[in-house]
Sequence to fold (344 residues):
Amino acid sequence: MQFNAKNIRKQAEENFEKTWIKTAKLLKVSGRSMYWKKTFGKKHPLHIQNEIFRKIFLSYGFDEVELPSIIPEQEVYKQYGPEAPLILDRVFYLAGLSRTELGISDEKKEQIKKIVPNFNKFEELSNFFRNYKKGQIEGDNFIEELVKRLKIKEYEATQIIEKVFPELKNLKKISTNLTLRSHMTASWFPLLSKMQRNNKLPLKLFSIGKRYRREQKQDMNHLYESTSASIVIMNEEITLDDGIDLTKKILKDLGFLKSKIIPKKTTSKYYALGMDLEVYVNFKGQELEIANLGFYSPVSLAKYKIWYPVLNLGFGVERVSMILHEINDIRKLVYPEIYNDGVA
Fold:
């Protein structure tokens, strides 16, 4: 069965609710058309690489943790100091929609009666809107709760919102001080501050998660989302050479027998001066950075009351996977169904 998408779109623009109800009949409920057998599906190369990193990190005694990806901006200021405004320029800030006061005028009452004849629960509707504004009703439960409280049909509730209260479509966005994590570091500091109190040293942790950066454009080397395979080691006695040795071992496990580990020309402020290193491997004649290694700055650590040195090592999973799969465009690696057919 194929849908006539063109006609459905046209009908939905003319009357969404009627088309929504009508098109449900295009779908079958009874009978069997497909039979489910145990087969092995295709894995995404990025998740294959994530699993490789997990196995390697676990093999060196690192414990896996999950880190929050929503970070208050003040955490960035604590970690980066005077560099924070430049970092925040690259992050995505989160916003929410305002919950406006919805009044019920005589005109709106008449409009509601055209949709629901003999409707008289205007006081209940006003209370419902007040509860919504106070946050006592979530947006994704709005229609369901409206149907339940007013004893009306679902399509009637939808038409009331669409035709009588169009102001709900024009709610203003209110910015918050919450950001999407642009560096895994932003999540490590608060966790380490908590864990140092009740755990024996050395503390060896890893997490694999998303980073979000407001890139100027998305191209073969840049996406808004990327994946970091990040580890931290906290110990009373640890050296940069210890970190370099671990990095080389992990690189060998990944299949990189040759690499360069060199100091970054300009040290990020959350790292100690001269303790910010970059890891490069050769890919088709070009030196590509795949990881970053360094000691967190004692200044940043002190703001979280962290008492011990912390070494951090983070790999760009997409970059590593691109090299190992010999793919020179990050979009074709991450979204092969979209970009490998030449459509996008």
In short: The chain is about 40% helix and 20% strand. Strands lie at 63-64, 70-72, 93-97, 173-180, 203-212, 225-234, 260-263, 271-283, 286-296, 310-316. Residues 96-174 form one domain. Residues 50 and 317 are 7 Å apart (CA to CA).
